[in-house]
Amino acid sequence: MNNTPIPSLDLVVDLNSEDESGLPWTFLNEARDPALIRQGAWLVVGEGTVRAVAQVVEIDDDIVRVRPLPGPVDEHRHLLSHRVA
Amino acid sequence: MNSEDLPGIRLSPEPDAPLLVVRGGVLEPDLTRADAIRFLRRYPLWGRYGIWAYFAADDEEIDVLCETRLKRLETVAVFLLSALGAAGIEVVPTFRRPHVTLAHADLEALVDGLRSCEPRIVNNRYHRGPGDGRP
Fold first, then answer.
1. Looking at chain B, which terminus has fewer C-beta neighbours within 10 angstroms, N or C?
2. A52 vs B4: CB contact, 8 Å cut-off?
3. Radius of gyration, CA atoms only, chain A
4. Is A2–B52 a contact, with Cβ atoms under 8 angstroms apart?
């Protein structure tokens, strides 16, 4: 059994999603704090118990497109500078 | 009508006559509902609730999806295309192959229909991410 806590989400994203960009997307108001959503920002994304670190690629009006990284969140913790360790 | 108000539907036939549809993650009704509502909000002119998934012809293609597009997901749900059709769920090729949208005009019919299909759950052997879901 794994007791590692699940990191909180910065942005709710269905990682199955895709649009014409080929990238997962969501709406800006799905962010925990909209101020975190800037082009190039690194975030914890997912939904339910799914988590990934992703970079904001584009903000198009109220649509946010992200590029998730492979591997667990802990491998990319250094990218999440906005979070308290 | 702005083309971005509709999902990009592929008109060319699928090359491998897919029999299966694969969606990453757990089919939890509240999450399915939220994803489907988000879809309709994005594409209101299409008039359908939708969730995202992928075509697959066989277990080999499921494995490729698990290694690539779905590698952040710990499990995947595998549906028979015929079962989705019997449940009244449209399977629409959207955006880049093998991406599809599972659609229905009625939200609860989509959520209940997906569950009624009793998808096969496959553990993703390419997933890494103890404790943090399915990155």
1. N
2. no
3. 12
4. no
Structure tokens at B76: 């995947």
- The span from the CA of B115 to the CA of B83, in Å, is 11
User: CA-CA distance, B70 to B22, in Å (whole number)?
Assistant: 9
* pLDDT per residue of chain B (135 residues) written in tens, 0 to 9: 455 678 888 877 776 677 999 999 988 999 999 999 999 999 999 999 999 999 999 999 999 999 999 988 999 999 999 999 999 999 999 998 899 999 999 999 999 999 999 999 999 999 886 543 433
Q: What is the pTM of this model?
A: 0.88
Indicate the angle between helix axes B107-116 and B29-42, nearest 10 degrees: 140
Angle at B101 between CA B105 and CA B31, to 5 degrees: 75
Domain boundaries, chain B: 17-123
CB B29 within 8 Å of CB B115: yes
Nearest CB neighbour to B135, from listed A2, A14, A72: A72
Q: How far apart are CA B93 and CA B98, in angstroms?
A: 7
Radius of gyration of chain B from its Cα atoms, rounded to whole angstroms: 14
Which residue's structure tokens are 């998808």?
A: B119
